[in-house]
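Thread title: Can someone regenerate the structure for this chain?

I was given the following input by a collaborator and told the matching structure tokens would be attached. They weren't. Posting the sequence so someone can regenerate them.
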Amino acid sequence: MPSADSPAPPAANALLEPDHRLALLTLARASITHGLETGRPAEVVLDKQPPALCVPRAAFVTLHRDRELRGCIGHLEAVHPLVIDVAENAFAAAFRDPRFPPVSVPELGLLRISLSVLTPAEPIGFGSEAELLAALEPGVDGVILGEDGRRGTFLPSVWEQLPRREDFLRGLKHKAGLSADHWSERIRAWRYRTESFGE
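Best answer:
Regenerated them for you:
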């Protein structure tokens, strides 16, 4: 047990320092470069990382080329220390997103990387679709929607393309494999926030 004088461990929703953001972006690009050379994500030595980056946290890595999406992979739950999550998801976004071919060497310099570090998801209480819509905070909430094993999520950045709550929810249903007008008492939803930054 830490002593009373020991510093508290970094919280799982604490904001990152500017140098930590830069370190994560640098790591994400290095992991993609390493993937091009070896076919594997970059290895991370935790002993050499700041404590704030070793806390288990979930993150998404998004790649753009010419302002068009080029890959996006992440975790909704914290399963690794943040630095490992970023390294593995950067590699996966570049080479394993099924929507796109693997990134090629000539593309590397054209890619722009952005990261979204998630707070732990919290359940949203609602008794109807109207109550769920009213509970959403546009531009702020990332939302996970699930029913009977199907699940989808939209990061808060999706509000930029779907600013109306109704459109956001319809799109999220589609992503979860549900019809846009589907509703049942088995639907569950969770919200999270993100700290997003990029190159």
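The two ends are 39 Å apart (CA to CA).
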